[in-house]
Amino acid sequence: MNEIQSVQNPTIRRLKALKDKKAREEAHEMLVEGEKLMREAAQLKLPVSDALFDADMADRFADLARDMERAGARVYAVPRRLLEVVCDTKTPQGACAAFGLPSFFDMEHAPERLVALDGVQDPGNVGTIWRTADAAGVGGLLMSAACADPFSPKVQRAAMGSGFRVPVSMTDDLPAMLTALKARGYSVVASSLHGAPFYENAPHGGRFALVIGNEARGVSEAVMEVADVRLKLPMRGGAESLNAAVAAGIMMYELTRD
Description:
- The protein is built from 12 helices and 11 strands.
- It is of the alpha/beta class.
- Helix 6 links the parallel strand 6 (113-118) and strand 7.
- The N and C termini lie far apart (51 Å).
- It has helices at residues 10-17, 21-27, 35-43, 62-70, 80-86, 123-136, 153-159, 162-165, 174-183, 198-201, 221-224, 244-255; strands spanning 2-3, 29-33, 48-54, 74-78, 95-100, 113-118, 140-144, 168-171, 187-197, 208-213, 229-232.
- 37% of the residues lie in helices and 24% in strands.
- It is elongated.
């Protein structure tokens, strides 16, 4: 295992740059932090280029370092201060690596169960919805360009590995994409505070795209016009609405119920 000591080292500078969306897009890579996520990314055969390990934790990460080398990574031992420079977390977990971005799914072969995010901007919400989609059996995420970057470290931490398993597709024109899905037999279900009661009107069976809107503004009017049905969850107490990720989770589980 080679060592790096300088913050000016080209590898350190390149991995640090992956905090930025433009750099991720240009390199077609993302930074994956922590042993669990690194192992999940490697298990799913995402290509890996460079891996950094805390020099003071070399024994703990010896097996992981060997696995990263076998997967094709250049492996380096670094002082913790360099991990703090590279990583997005304030307290790095002692290991990180640059992995290739997962492929976007082809809309011609879209999964039969989708959740569509219309301007969901909080990275924690995007990642949590992604993870819940994985758990509920929803096959893919369709995201408008106004959403948080799906490959940012915050999103991927919240997704807890589901971002490597459940494919995603991005679009600059979500209404047009949903219209195309409708033509192929998908039901477009939009969450709305002014919609019909969810449990009495939720469709079951068949293809669907569940649309979750922006945290503050909800589903955009252009997307709402495409929806086959607008539904709201019951608010039985004093709260006026639910967090976007919580609402998405409840609806996904209900829509996938046999």
